[in-house]
Fold this protein.
Amino acid sequence: MGGADDAAAATQASGDSHNMIALYYCYPPGSIPAHQLQSHAAFHEDTCLSLDLGGRIRVSKEGINGVLSGTEEHLREYEARLRRELMSVVPNNEIAASSNVENDPTAEWLDVKYCHLRKDIPTETQLFDSLSVKITREVVSLIEPSNGNGGKKKGRARCRQRRKQKRKEKQRLEKQREEDVGGDAEGCKGSGTNTIKVDQSANGEDFGSDALSPQNESTDAQPLGTALPIPDWEKKTPAVHLSPDEWNQKLLQLSRASGNDSSGSVLLDTRNVYETRVGHFGVPNLDTFFPNTRKFSSLPNALNTEEAAEALAGKEVFMYCTGGVRCERAGSYLRAISESNSGAWNGKEPPKGVYQLNGGIQKYLESYGKDQSSAEGKESIQEKGQTDEPCLYRGKNFVFDPRRTDPVVGNGVANAEGSVVSLVGRCIVCSTPHDDYDNGHAPCEEKEARCCRCRVLVLVCNECRQKVRCWGEPESNECEMELFCGKGGTECVDEGNIAAKVETARF
């Protein structure tokens, strides 16, 4: 049975009306014809509105990327319709040339993951209150914009960002004053709007990246710690996909065989620093390279450092991200920069192999994770074929939807004795174990701590939260310090030499 039929059958069989999150992306063979982008975007909007789904969808010639909330029945119906739609918009000759699946070729390109809601906060706070469909240049953007006036343009962008920060801070203070005198606080759901937006710059919120398309420039003048603008890097062979089972077996094999000598393999976490702080893979005897970036579009900068080249050159690189889409581009760029003989990679050997976790952490935890929110959650995962093999992921999976983190966590193996680690986060001020950015609140309540400079999420325990001033908060005599997102809460990860922020760790 093909993918569309499977989705429809699951809908009919379950009759389930409980709410879920659907996370998906798709790189079809060839491309979606430019003249069909508007109608394809309209399909997403019309279908989602008819099924009462909210969320964000990016549509480009190279594919689609989306995250939606709604009932499982309606989400699966959306998936079934989407598979049929893709078969109609992707040229038939491209489908025939690329597919080995007779009944439903979309099973090879469309990856949909269904995610449970958390039980510790109200359901309505975890659902999108609007729908946004954007037509963009790319499914996910990796390279920062630049041109002949790159420095000036970047400076103007920073000024716009600061003005926006000040406006938002003013609005937040006005809202706080209204609440202090008895005004009604804004609800979590909000009014919301639905729209199709043509975003030619591909900028904005996009599930982990906010960069523009690359410009062709010479790599000779690029200093270390900046992105090398390598022509046609997107055409490089992407990383080899490993299923969660293949990933686990391969890493366990390397871990057990390498002992104290694991110089031939390394993990690469392509996510941002605030994601890795609440959860990451930790494989005994294997190093993991953490770029510790504020945004995905800074990953090329981190890869053009001597630290990155030293950690990755000549090795088998195993990369991962939340759902897999960022690795699709990161794998191609890593191959391109490592073969360019430029920047930090001048004279360095390219990786011997580049692999990515198919379906990302989300897919991996479906088999190896534990739902700690309720007994019902544990049963639902076990029914989907959860394995007894050791889990290599530790902690929570940060997600770009109203839940903030997925309820399924990794009880990562810590050592040969079998002890596990499920909490990796720590308060940035006092180092107390802590992995809740919202300190018991629903994310939509906006009680989280953010860096005073770049607004990145920061982990601060309840006790220290009372002593620090975060972005958007008024000055107070009770606050002992302004909070930043870097070491000890005293510096920003998005400021200074990026080489000083990257990190190689062994667990």
